[in-house]
Amino acid sequence: MSLTTMAEANTIHPHLPETPSHDCNEPALRVSRTYLAHALLAQHSPELRTLDQVITIRSRRAPITARPSIFSLPVEILLAIRAQLHPMVTSALLNDSAHGLTAALLGRTRGFCAECLKYNVHVFGSDVLAWPDHAGAGTETDPLSMAPAADEKKAGCLCGVWEMDGKVVETSWRREERERERESVKALVSTDFFSLSSSETAEDGRDSSLKPCAPEERQIEHPHGSPASDLNDFAFDTAYSPQAWLDAHLSRMMPHQKPIWPTVTDIVSNEFGCSMICPDQDAKGNMVSDDILIIPTDPHHQFALMRLAREFSLPMTYSGTGPQLIAAARSTAATYLAERVKCIPPRTKDMVSFEQPKAGMARKLGMAVGFGVCAWVVLGLGAF
User: Fold this and answer.
1) Domain limits for position 104
2) Among 68, 156, 247, 324, which is least packed by CB within 10 angstroms?
3) Domain total of the chain
């Protein structure tokens, strides 16, 4: 971590104007908002909560067992173990978020038959974010919601779908291909998206972390999710940015499913005596930068920043930033779709196997009318 001047901070963050109300020598901590949110979530993991309980018990009394155990270790060693465990749990959560976003992006292909999936990849590319919007990807208020199972066949392509008496009827071949495509989407290859870095200089040559004063704090609202099933069952709603999906995903994983960023703000403010400066948003609501500035409430309390960095095990450099996570998820989903389309065999059109309810009803109606005319003719001839 390093101290810089306000001019250097504005060079890195040109959208952060200089504010006269802050001393330019005031220290600040620059961190990745994505990494900070996952680090906070790691605090609530069973691994860290259990270790924290052990540290609390051990710090209040002498070793409670004569045999070697975790309770017989000195508190200093337990704290060193925690310092190593926290970033490992955070890295695992970053990988889970990347896999969840990848599965959500691939969820946009839910409901497509093989032919329409091949068409979309050929015309619009393998990046699903470049595809036109379609029904069933989510609701207007929740980026993690998805269409009910009864309406799922309305999502995606409309080939092989008939509407009869206000009801949607699928042909057998479309239903079979849709189920086969949905099963194939679940076969994601496990990838380690992020690995921890112990180097002291960022890959782009910048020094990470401590930065000087920052502008007034802006409260930024983020959509949060609601209880639902496995994350892999969610489709990505293009009405929201991938960053909003990540925020909703983290909010669902918080205890009692509290919104992630109000929780982060409260903890940073109440437990560490600091405030956060969030970057501006563009016209689509996306963050201009993944970095945020954390400043102490009292400019002389620089130790609060050091305590926060130690408590959350913030590394000198961090590869788990939002843009890198989103890019990794998009790349994985695009690679999978491109390879999946190559394996789709050409479909042979067998008209006998098609269910054609409209044509069937027309034939039955024609036969009924024909029999009626014949009966009328026979009865008329019998009268003579």
Assistant:
1) 6-32+87-152+187-342
2) 68
3) 1
